[in-house]
Each structure stands twice: as C-alpha cells, then as structure tokens.
C-alpha cells in the first residue's frame, strides 16, 4: 500500500495529525507518523527502509524537543538527493519563516489552517494530483529501467543509454545513508536521468495550478 509519511518531534502532534490524515486520505493510503532520529543520517536510514512512499509531510521545527540536530528543511534537502520528484510539504506553525525554501517543496501548510473543512478538501485534491503525477513518473522510470536492462542482456547499449541505465540504477538504491558516499559524478548521472524525465513531469503537472 502507498504510504504517507509525517515527521514531527512531538508525540501529541503526531497523534492528532494521524487521525486527521487517516480521514483525509481514507483507506487508500497508510499514514506513518515518525518521531525524529538524532542524526540526519539515522533519519534517512529509517526512511529508506520504508517502501512505497508517495509523499512527505515534515514539520520544520524538528529541533524543538532537543532530540534532533537538524531542521525540516535540512532533512528535505537530504531526501532530494535520493528522490527529486516525490511530493514534500512543510507543515508548520511558522509558515512565514520558510517561504524562501519553496524550491525544495510543493508548498507550506500552516498548522493553524489545517482543519477538516472546505480548505482541506481543496488541499486533498492538490495532494492527490501531486501523488498521481509522482506515481506516473516513477512508473515511467521503472519501465525505462526495465527496457534498458533487457536491451543490455540481449544487445549492446549505446554510450548514452549506458549512462542513463547507471543513473536509473543508482536511483533505485535505498540504503545509502550518507551524502558523502555518493560521488559528484554519480549525482550528475542521476540528475541527468531525472532531467530526461522532466518533460513527462511538466506535461503531467502543467494544469495543476489551474485546477
């Protein structure tokens, strides 16, 4: 089952939003609410061990309890190394403080505005468009990887196809926990493969803001 990940360092907040998200996403998704790990590498390892993730909701003030050494934005920047397309939302009471980070996230949701009503229904529709777009992209990536894998078995890949294949293969790695493990060259290959799929992403999401 597809999984919605919510990360917050406050157990009461996690319990509250677990109920809200279960209602919002009905029975189509499993909502997993996670406490923070002390280091960002430990947090990434926990996330990489969860399959079928389709979106994240992350609180910005993850340092509030004193357990974590990183903010929500710090965590998002690390997640983007492994998955540049997955929808990510900041859920916070301090929305005005993180406007400049919108490049890494879909949008900021003010906790004070999160209630079960018409606004949330509108948000739900936007969430579903983002999730469905992401799943379409992942499906295209998987199909392309399988095509290149089969071709590599029965014939020879071109140099460009080989580079794409290596990048797509890298994107399937789930248990890398340190940014330093990935070389700049490997990241460039991964980004190149991701860029090649941007046309698909744009076509699927170009009407999002108008709906």
Protein architecture, described:
The chain is an alpha/beta fold and 211 residues long. The chain folds into two domains: 3-115, Response regulator (Rossmann fold); 129-210, no CATH class. Helices cover 50% and strands 12% of the residues. The protein has seven helices and five strands; from the N terminus they run E-H-E-H-E-H-E-E-H-H-H-H. The protein has helices at residues 11-25, 40-48, 72-82, 118-154, 159-171, 184-196, 198-205, and strands at 3-7, 30-34, 53-58, 88-92, 107-110. Strands 2-1-3-4-5 form a five-stranded parallel β-sheet, sandwiched between helices. Strand 3, helix 3 and strand 4 (88-92) form a beta-alpha-beta unit. Helix 4 (118-154) packs antiparallel against helix 7 and helix 5 (159-171) packs across helix 6 (184-196). The chain is globular and about 55 Å long. Mean pLDDT is 78; it is low at 173-184.
List keywords for this structure.
alpha/beta; single chain; Rossmann fold; 211 residues; 5 strands; 5-stranded parallel beta sheet
| Rg of Cα set | 18 Å
| The CATH architecture of the largest domain | 3-Layer(aba) Sandwich
Helical fraction equals 40-55%
Bin the strand percentage: 5-15%
- Structural class of the helix and strand makeup? alpha/beta
CATH first level of the largest domain: which class?
Alpha Beta
In CATH terms, the superfamily of the largest domain is Response regulator
Major sheet description: 5 strands, parallel
Q: What's the domain count?
A: 2
SS summary, helix count: 7
Write the H/E string, N to C: EHEHEHEEHHHH
**What is the number of E strands?**
5
| Rounded mean pLDDT score | 78
Q: Taking strands numbered 1, 2, ... along the chain, how are they ordered across the largest sheet?
A: 2-1-3-4-5
Report the CATH topology name of the largest domain.
Answer: Rossmann fold
Report the uncertain regions: 173-184
Overall, the morphology is globular
Span of the ends, CA to CA: 27 Å
């Amino acid at each position: 089952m597809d999984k919605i990940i919510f990360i917050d360092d406050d157990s009461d907040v996690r319990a509250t939003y677990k109920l809200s998200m279960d209602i919002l996403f009905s029975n189509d998704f499993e909502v997993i609410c996670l406490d923070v790990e002390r280091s960002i590498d430990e947090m990434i390892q926990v996330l990489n061990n969860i399959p079928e993730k389709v979106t994240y909701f992350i609180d910005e003030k993850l340092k509030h309890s004193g357990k974590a050494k990183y903010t929500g934005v710090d965590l998002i920047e690390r997640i983007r190394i492994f998955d540049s397309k997955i929808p990510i939302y900041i859920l916070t009471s301090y929305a005005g403080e993180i406007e400049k980070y919108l490049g890494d996230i879909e949008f900021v949701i003010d906790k004070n505005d999160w209630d079960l009503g018409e606004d949330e229904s509108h948000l739900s529709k936007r969430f579903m468009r983002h999730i469905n777009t992401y799943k379409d992209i992942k499906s295209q990536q998987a199909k392309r990887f399988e095509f290149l894998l089969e071709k590599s078995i029965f014939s020879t890949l071109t140099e460009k196809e080989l580079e794409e294949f290596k990048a797509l293969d890298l994107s399937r790695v789930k248990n890398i926990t340190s940014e330093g493990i990935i070389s700049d060259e490997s990241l460039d290959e991964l980004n190149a493969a991701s860029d090649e799929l941007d046309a698909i992403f744009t076509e699927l999401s170009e009407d999002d803001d108008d709906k």
